[in-house]
Write a structure and sequence with these properties.
six-stranded mixed beta sheet, alpha/beta, 468 residues, Purple Acid Phosphatase, chain A, domain 2, 5'-nucleotidase,  domain 2
Length: 468
């Protein structure tokens, strides 16, 4: 006898709740269909379901996301970095207290107290006809962040070495939920032949029909749940082995929305508005926001970050603020709306030469007009860089571009060999936007505060009842 096992999965929703009613409708129908057929079916999520860019996720600190997954009927999930490092320790510790599904992550460890009851390294399921399914979870080890929040993420390969033998002995089929990214998934498949299926995420890759590496099928469904993934496994009970593995992703953007989920989201949004509706400041005049000009609010916010981090100087890009703040009462909802990014302050150390190069690069049109996607940035363009603690001498070239002539600290030109501490948005510590910052060997991240927390502080201290 052969038995088909169906695994439906989502990854990297990032609180894209406009799409969620379609996801809910698709998965509820899929699960109901398999129940009618008396076939085995599991619903899984691979992390970054929570993203505090959305007011609902912000107001409920991710617990509403868990409520939404409960409603759909998920069986097991793992954590992404957006669950792991954008919530305070206690918020993450209690995030899944009310989950009706299992949470699996073999390489997340609590440094402050005993592990939360919901956190399991491995979980097991049985199919309708008794096939044993072992599920391991892994998440990306951003320990520069995690350890500031009193968590530690161990090396994923060592975690697999610790558990894979016992899982293989206890289960007929081994599945890995991996919030590590495509390259890590491929490396794991090459090294651990015991794993039958790797369902991935984190790097937002879309594998429409899966990828086979060393007899392991790897799959992932992109980002924002425009696609839902499905893995179909065929188990031969007589031969006692898997005889076929296939993976698909389905574009669900054209499908109807589940009406009950829409109602739930409307209710959650109303509650979120109430929770975020507390007045932070009262403005007598509108605060202007301009992406390509230096404004009062950006100057003050950059000053706040310099003070907050005790750095020698600070720099922030004007594209961080998405819209103006109108005169009158300003609520936390308003602040979240104009600064939704899960971005933290960070201090790096740069030589005078490196800092000069960073300042010069920040004045280039290419950087200012860059339409950045990722690295925590949820805006449109990088925008003009604003500085605190530095004086920048510039000249306008014949083609209209502004060019940096010199950079001064405390009235003197930067010393090429001196080390300066520079406060930046942590966005620039990744990738190659500003390579000198990304390559800095000293990075001090400030958690759990986001830049919008510094914005709220700035508004209270510099703009409450004051004109721009």
């Amino acid at each position: 006898m052969q038995e088909k096992l169906c695994l439906y999965y989502t990854n990297d929703l990032h609180s894209n709740f406009s799409q969620w009613p379609r996801v809910a409708g698709y998965l509820k129908e899929a699960k109901a269909s398999k129940a009618r057929e008396q076939a085995s079916c599991l619903l899984m999520d691979v992390g970054d379901h929570v993203d505090r860019v959305h007011p609902i996720a912000e107001a409920f600190m991710g617990k509403a996301n868990v409520q939404l997954m409960n409603d759909v009927g998920y069986d097991v999930v793992t954590l992404g970095n957006n669950e792991g490092i954008t919530l305070g320790h206690e918020d993450l510790y209690h995030l899944y207290d009310d989950a009706d599904f299992q949470v699996v992550c073999a390489n997340l460890h609590d440094m402050a107290e005993k592990e939360p009851d919901w956190l399991k390294p491995v979980v097991y399921f049985r199919s309708v006809n008794g096939v044993r399914i072992g599920v391991i979870g892994l998440t990306a080890p951003f320990n520069n962040y995690y350890e500031l929040l009193q968590w530690h993420v161990s090396n994923p390969f060592k975690a697999l070495e610790k558990y894979i033998k016992s899982v293989k002995e206890a289960a007929d089929i081994v599945i890995l939920l991996s919030h590590l990214g495509i390259s890590e998934d491929q490396a794991i498949a090459r090294r651990f032949s015991e794993i039958d299926v790797i369902i991935g995420g984190h790097t937002h890759h879309l594998l429409r029909t899966g990828e086979n590496v060393n007899n392991t099928i790897i799959t992932a469904a992109g980002k924002h749940c425009t696609f839902v993934g499905e893995v179909i496994l065929t188990w031969d009970h007589q031969a006692k082995k898997l005889v076929h593995k296939e993976a698909y992703t389905t574009d669900i953007t054209h499908l109807a929305k589940d009406s009950e989920t829409e109602k739930m989201l409307q209710q959650l949004y109303k509650k979120a508005n109430n929770l975020l509706g507390q007045t932070v400041v009262h403005l007598h005049q509108t605060i202007e926001v301009k992406w390509f000009q230096e404004t009062a609010i950006m100057r003050k916010l950059t000053d706040t970050m310099k003070m907050w981090t005790k750095a020698d100087c600070a720099m922030l890009n004007s594209g961080l603020l998405l819209d103006e703040l109108s005169k009158g009462d300003v609520t936390y909802k308003d602040i979240h709306r104009i600064c939704p990014h899960p971005i933290n302050p960070c201090v790096v150390e740069l030589t005078g030469d490196e800092l000069t190069e960073v300042v010069r690069a920040s004045f280039t049109k290419d950087l200012m007009e860059l339409k950045l996607k990722g690295f925590g940035f949820r805006g449109e363009v990088i925008g003009r860089m604003v500085f605190s603690g530095l004086a920048i001498a510039t000249t306008v070239l014949t083609d209209g571009r502004e060019s940096v002539k010199n950079v001064f600290f405390q009235g003197e030109p930067l010393d090429p060999d001196r080390i300066y501490s520079v406060a930046v948005a942590d966005t620039f510590t990744f990738g190659r936007l500003l390579p000198e910052i990304a390559k800095s060997e000293t990075k001090q991240y400030f958690l759990p505060e986001f830049l919008r927390d510094l914005l709220a502080y700035t508004l209270r201290n510099d703009f409450d009842g004051k004109a721009d």
